[in-house]
Specification:
Layout (H helix, E strand, L loop, with lengths): L4 E3 L6 E6 L9 H12 L3 E5 L2 H7 L14 H13 L6 E7 L1 H15 L5 E5 L24 E6 L7 H4 L8 E6 L16 H20 L2
Parallel strand pairs: 2-3, 2-4, 4-5, 5-6, 6-7
Antiparallel strand pairs: 1-3
């Protein structure tokens, strides 16, 4: 069984499953801030933790996460559970931060074809491990059918704007580039941008993506 944290209006037109990154829990500052910003934009958010992360809360050893492919079934189970509790007419988006978004992307077409998920939204997609740009994680993104949107920092070490621009990605994927953003979308101090402003941009992008899906 998964423990959920739900924020935002229960009767929102859209509910977003926000899964965590590899090393931070569902209550990390980033997750808390994004969930709060989405609530202000009338987006309901459901957060959960994969078993390895939940075990840390119970005093378990800090182990590295399993391979993303081994977390796919858990994500599907969560998505189906959340979908079963949706209010009439409410749409479900799946996604997450970094690794959480990657896992969601691996099951997106399955859940979309089954009528469970209307779209995929990723915050800081890990296109490759830092320092190893040759090890891309994009093969499944080339034929993706599920509508998808990625918010990515321009200087994210997991995939910069220049690197991602060279990839062959599905036309179903659109990207919002966060100015001078790192993997957590934060800019450098002298850039003229702020972390708050960049997170607001990310929340605006999800709200716009959800609104576009509602019109289709």
């Amino acid at each position: 069984m998964h423990e959920f944290i739900s924020t935002g209006p229960a009767d929102a037109a859209c509910r977003f499953i926000l899964s965590h990154g590899a090393g931070a829990p569902m209550t990390s500052p980033f997750m808390e801030q994004i969930a709060a910003l989405l609530a202000k934009r009338e987006i309901a958010v459901t957060r959960f933790e994969f078993a390895y992360m939940a075990a840390r809360r119970e005093g378990g050893k800090r182990r590295p996460p399993p391979k993303a492919e081994l977390l796919m079934d858990a994500y599907v189970d969560v998505a189906r559970q959340v979908a079963a509790s949706l209010r009439p007419g409410q749409r479900l988006l799946i996604g997450g931060k970094s690794m959480g978004g990657r896992v969601a992307s691996l099951v997106a077409d399955r859940l979309h074809q089954d009528g469970v998920a209307a779209g995929l939204f990723c915050l800081g997609y890990p296109f490759h491990p830092p320092g190893r740009p040759e090890q891309t994680r994009t093969t499944h993104l080339e034929p993706l059918v599920c509508p998808a949107h990625i918010v990515q920092g321009e200087r994210d070490p997991f995939g910069t704007r220049e690197e991602v621009g060279s990839y062959r990605l599905s036309p179903a994927i659109s990207i919002t580039w966060v100015p001078d953003g790192d993997h957590d979308l934060g800019p450098r101090g002298a850039s003229g941008y702020t972390r708050k402003g960049n997170l607001e941009l990310a929340a605006d992008a999800l709200a716009a993506f959800a609104a576009d899906l509602a019109r289709t």
